[in-house]
Specification:
By secondary structure, the chain is α+β, with helices and mostly antiparallel strands. The chain is built from six helices and ten strands. The strands form two sheets. It has a seven-stranded mixed beta sheet with strand order 4-8-9-10-6-5-7, with helices on both faces. It has a three-stranded mixed beta sheet with strand order 1-2-3, with helices on one face. Helix 1 links the parallel strand 2 and strand 3. The protein is globular and about 50 Å long.
Length: 211
């Protein structure tokens, strides 16, 4: 299947129709692929047997496709940030938090307040990408991997605000400096196992914080 994800031409070779159904919104015809995502069926079965989480082969293939896609991004100026990203009047806001903390709930509260001014870009795993002609403008993209609620769409927004959410007894917001944000963002960034890609991810995180 040919897709356009985060402004990359991505060809995905799949075994189950579930993956193509999830990527339907991103279908795009092209001649040359920037990224090739191949998922071997035997590898899916082996990984599924080792997984502590109950799943089926179709869903697990979809998840592995995400990992293969994310592993290839950093040396191309992009990485995956575990967060909920939305756009308000052309401005991107990212809510990052540990799973189950409430970033999606918080985002939906904003949606109820702002209505059609707010568009959800990705509720779980947006791609953050930089371009050489805009070295300090991080763009967040919708991807097919947008959480169990499937909040998101095929668009991008420039990230202007990054918020880390944690549970508390009262509602309050505090500014963070870069040194405080480093450990928080490292916990939410997808870190590839290949050293070259991991090193590139660290540089992109640094660029994001300087933005």
């Amino acid at each position: 299947m040919k897709c356009r994800i985060a402004d990359f031409n991505v060809e995905i070779f799949f075994n189950h129709p579930f993956l193509s159904e999830q990527c339907r919104e991103y279908a795009y015809d092209f001649e040359t692929a920037d990224l090739n995502v191949r998922i071997d069926r035997e590898f899916v079965k082996e990984e599924l047997e080792r997984s502590p989480v109950e799943s089926n082969e179709e869903s697990y293939e979809f998840m592995l496709a995400y990992r293969v896609f994310a592993d290839m991004l950093p040396t191309r100026g992009a990485f995956v940030l575990h967060s909920a990203v939305f756009d308000v009047d052309g401005v991107g806001v990212a809510f990052a938090a540990q799973s189950g903390t409430g970033k999606t709930t918080h985002m939906l509260r904003w949606k109820s307040l702002l209505g059609e001014r707010l568009t959800v870009v990705n509720g779980d795993k947006p791609t953050v990408r930089f371009f050489e002609d805009e070295p300090y403008t991080p763009y967040a993209y919708g991807t097919p991997w947008n959480g169990k609620e499937h909040y998101g769409c095929n668009m991008r927004t420039p990230i202007k605000h990054l918020c880390f959410i944690k549970r508390g007894e009262e509602n309050r917001a505090e500014p963070l400096d870069q040194s405080e944000a480093i450990s928080l963002i490292f916990n939410q960034a997808y870190m590839p196992s290949v050293p070259e890609q991991a090193a590139a991810t660290i540089k992109l995180i640094d660029r994001l914080l300087k933005s």
